[in-house]
Amino acid sequence: MSLGYAEKLSYIEDVGNVGMVEYFDPSHVLREKIDQLAIMIKKSKHLVVFTGAGISTSCGIPDFRGPKGIWTLQREGKALPEASLPFHRAAPSLTHMALVELEKAGILKFVISQNVDGLHLRSGIPREKLAELHGNSFMETCPSCGAEYFRDFEVETIGLKETSRRCSVTKCGTRLKDTVLDWEDALPPKEMNPAEKHCKQADIVLCLGTSLQITPACNLPLKALRGGGKVVIVNLQKTPKDKKASLVIHGFVDKVIAGIMDQLNMQIPPFVRIDLFQIIIVQALSNDRRYVNWTLQVASAHGQRAALPFIKSVEISFLDREDYKAAILDKQPFRLKRRTAYNKAFEMVLKLVFSDGCGCSSLEIDVPVDFKVSTDCFDFDKDYIFQKLRDKAVVESRCGQNAVIERKTILTPRSDVTTYAIVTNVVQYGKTCKAALDSLSNGDLRKRKANVTGTGSSRKRSKGSSKCKSRSENIRGHM
């Protein structure tokens, strides 16, 4: 946590309306509004979606102003919500993936997000069609050449500070910076300018799960009104912009979007997460050239010193070699040093034990080693391999599929580097979508308010969603 961050949170929570009442449209009204919105989207020529924390609550990431929101709990002096999974393993919600399908169909033209959870980008929304106004906890950028790096781990800083890594672009090498804004930071023009442009062009700006209270971001949707466009708001709480909206829907975002997709006769695609890791073998001949001193490392594809968050431990065994002692590596960096006769080939089996939040518990990789034989170098078409892995994971409805995507040799010191891609999560939204439609009534509640004793009911989560950890360092944009 950066210095003074908690104090800034306290200041903002006093400014905002925390612990707000949550409203639910009656079931018949909700269905009528969903039908109305579906017709509007079908006729739309330039749909823009503006998102806040409410689209990520079903992923296990808490919001701010709800009964169990971060600012509500802080104001009441209560502990922040605990979660069983780390932030970096959060999977996109039904809504995230529905937006991906709408974009692929050419209906959705642009997404503007106040969230820093990176779920829009991870879901598959193209970077050029996404403005992340408050940054991305998993993104680093080069201040010199502008290159962006989307990580599988949380970047360790906030406030546009330098990180421990450098740009890998040839002849650049500038130290990278995080992208998450601190309170005093202005919204970056790179994100703000296209967001403003698309809002002015929009015939509909659909606001999902946002209180529309944080300036200047909250004023962006209103720019559509000047060109004759309309604003639609889907949120559980009332917002300051409700009076200017053509349609206001009080209901869970996932339920509303599930209903929209059903009305449009569109399927919500599954989410398949593919992570990368490297197996690196560094070798050095002894002076008499009879032995090889070698080091095995299981490393991040983002750099040998980068975190490898989805692997908990590595168990190493050797086939048909009783004189080779097995090893368990349970601390990063995962590194093993050994000495082997130069003329002896052998085969290792690496059992990768995955961390919480992954859809499979472990994976075994066979690694043949022969120091006398030169390693074949290649670089496959990564997009093609990724698509094949996704297709297989969806058909089999499980994860664990893997493939080698690159192998290269570094001469000094002599190192063989093999990069693997592996499917670590598969989420199907069909059942979740049906459950959302079946429970479209929102129950009998019309409104709900958190009380000071904390006994107010918490938000419902879809059965297929997973909880994830939310750190206070990363809540800057979940508004």
From TrEMBL:
Family statement: Belongs to the sirtuin family. Class IV subfamily.
Protein name from the UniProt record: NAD-dependent protein deacetylase SRT1
Metal-binding is among the record's keywords: yes
Organism: Psophocarpus tetragonolobus (Winged bean)
Superkingdom of source: Eukaryota
Gene Ontology terms, MF aspect: histone deacetylase activity, NAD-dependent; metal ion binding; NAD+ binding; transcription corepressor activity
UniProt cross-references to Pfam families, sorted A to Z: SIR2
Residues the record marks as active site: 134
